[in-house]
Amino acid sequence: MSYLPIPSLPADRPEDFPPAARALAEPNGLLAWGGDLSPERLLAAYARGIFPWYSEGQPLLWWCPDPRAVFDTGAIRLSSRFRRDLRRSAWVVRTDTCFDAVVAACARAPRPGQDGTWITPAMRAAYGRLHQLGHAHSIEVFEGPHLVGGLYGVAVGRAFSAESMFSARSGGSKVALAALGHWLAAWGWPWIDAQVANPHLLGLGARELPREAFLARWSDLAAAPGRPGPWREAPLPVARLADVSAA
Length: 247
Prior knowledge:
Number of helices: 7
Structural class: alpha+beta
Distance between the termini: 45 Å
Helix content: 25-40%
Number of strands: 12
């Protein structure tokens, strides 16, 4: 990686990241390489709006793209038809009851245009450690005893960065996202960081912000008092989400 005009991270200073403004324009947001996936480094990265993303066999790469995709927690967009389906659904959403299973399902989920997954065994182990420390969380959609959708991400202060989601049944990931927005809005957390926009996320209500504007707000949210430890919300029947968002 020495041919890239980005710095390597020091092994002994997990909080040490270059300013996000130094990230490359192409590939968009590539900021640094190296370091490790220790909890200290990951939390320092997320507090700064930086996240790791790399494939098996690559060095560890760190990113902060411009623009940045976010959801307003009170404005997840669900279609009228989908909300009608929710009213008849017996699905239930839970939090932090099977984090590892959600991450494993996200790693297996096919992604258009991607060969393999960026959720490597090292990444799965790293986020598992963050979960055990109360900083990574899963939103889980169940049909009876079966996990049919979910997402996971990292919380720092009142800032939540969604890492990945999956559907084992049609609409499972949308339900997980809507439930996350429902809970975070109730707590006064304004944003879900979606990192990079795509048509699917934009259709669900994501919007893009210039990186500078995103980071100015994000730093305040990350420094605010949060909810460390397991999230133990009461199971949420998805029928209650039918009227949360309108198309």
